[in-house]
């Protein structure tokens, strides 16, 4: 019989719907799970600096306020906690705005090297405190033009370099390596720090995910930096990748398209 059996056609269609529903339900359940985890994490992260500040104030009220030295120490600690809280809320706003598509990227053409030098200046003090050498490696002095959002891309590189400093030992290094390919430039941020265990590597870019190791938990941070990086790079049509080995170090990398117009020799005069 050449003609298709209409009943079996309908049956298979019903089966398709049923499967689709199951898939959809699984997806919804997964999203609900993420939402719950997100809320639990956010509450925990917000509570930490709030409780700390509360503790410092209570200690002051308890008598510490009478001793000028002790008072100053606790006031400084309270201010520091409030500062963490502020950074956390700001990061949170950035993530939610980017995820909701509310942040528009402002693309412009610029020399990537200029931006990286700008980053290196900004992180200098932090690096000096741990005697960490932060350097830029480029193939030559030619400008490397890209079409990107200068400030947001700078934020990405700052986050990566600051992590390279934070999760590093004293006297370590962080290298920003620019590698020019035919149509793209690869940006690598390489450190010789504590590294990231294999089992944590694919969850690292989730909001609030932090490696459960005493040394990394001791470092202040919101666990939002890499999530922000991932989103910003997605808006530049690219992805961030990671290679890391515990106790050896980590390299975070992404590619950007080279800007064609300025790359053309005719445009130079
Ligand atoms: P934060 O640094 O605020 O915790 P991030 O999203 O920037 O948040 O990083 C998430 C986690 O990934 C960090 O808590 C740390 O455990 C780990 N991590 C990030 N960068 C590095 C690095 N260069 N070396 C080792 N661990 C890192």
From TrEMBL:
Coiled coil: none annotated. Its EC number is 2.7.13.3. The keyword Nucleotide-binding does not apply. This is histidine kinase. It is an enzyme of class 2 (transferase). Keywords: Kinase, Membrane, Phosphoprotein, Transferase, Transmembrane, Transmembrane helix, Two-component regulatory system. GO terms for molecular function: phosphoprotein phosphatase activity; phosphorelay sensor kinase activity. One of its GO terms (cellular component) is plasma membrane. Residues 41-260 form the Histidine kinase domain. It comes from Flammeovirga aprica JL-4. One of its GO terms (biological process) is cellular response to phosphate starvation. It catalyses: ATP + protein L-histidine = ADP + protein N-phospho-L-histidine. The lineage of its organism: Bacteria, Pseudomonadati, Bacteroidota, Cytophagia, Cytophagales. It comes from the Bacteria.
């Amino acid at each position: 019989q050449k003609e298709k059996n209409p009943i079996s056609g309908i049956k298979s269609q019903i089966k398709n719907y049923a499967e689709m529903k199951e898939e959809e339900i699984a997806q919804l359940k997964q999203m609900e799970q993420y939402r719950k985890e997100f809320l639990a994490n956010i509450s925990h992260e917000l509570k930490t600096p709030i409780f700390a500040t509360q503790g410092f104030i209570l200690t002051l009220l308890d008598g510490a306020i009478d001793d000028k030295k002790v008072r100053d120490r606790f006031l400084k600690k309270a201010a520091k906690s409030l500062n963490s809280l502020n950074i956390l809320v700001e990061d949170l706003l950035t993530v939610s705005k980017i995820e909701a598509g509310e942040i528009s990227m402002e693309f412009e053409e610029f020399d990537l090297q200029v931006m990286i030098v700008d980053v290196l200046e900004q992180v200098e003090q932090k690096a000096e405190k741990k005697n960490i050498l932060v350097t830029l490696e480029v193939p030559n002095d030619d400008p490397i033009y890209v079409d990107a959002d200068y400030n947001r891309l700078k934020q990405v590189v700052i986050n990566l370099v600051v992590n390279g400093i934070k999760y590093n030992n004293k006297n370590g290094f962080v290298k920003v390596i620019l590698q020019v390919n035919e149509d793209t430039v690869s940006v690598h941020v390489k450190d010789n720090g504590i590294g990231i265990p294999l089992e944590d590597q694919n969850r690292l870019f989730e909001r609030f995910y932090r490696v459960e190791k005493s040394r990394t938990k001791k470092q202040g941070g919101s666990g939002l930096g890499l999530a922000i990086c991932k989103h910003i790079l997605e808006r530049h049509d690219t992805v961030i990748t990671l290679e890391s080995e515990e106790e050896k170090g980590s390299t975070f990398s992404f590619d950007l398209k080279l800007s064609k117009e300025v790359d053309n020799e005719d445009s130079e005069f």
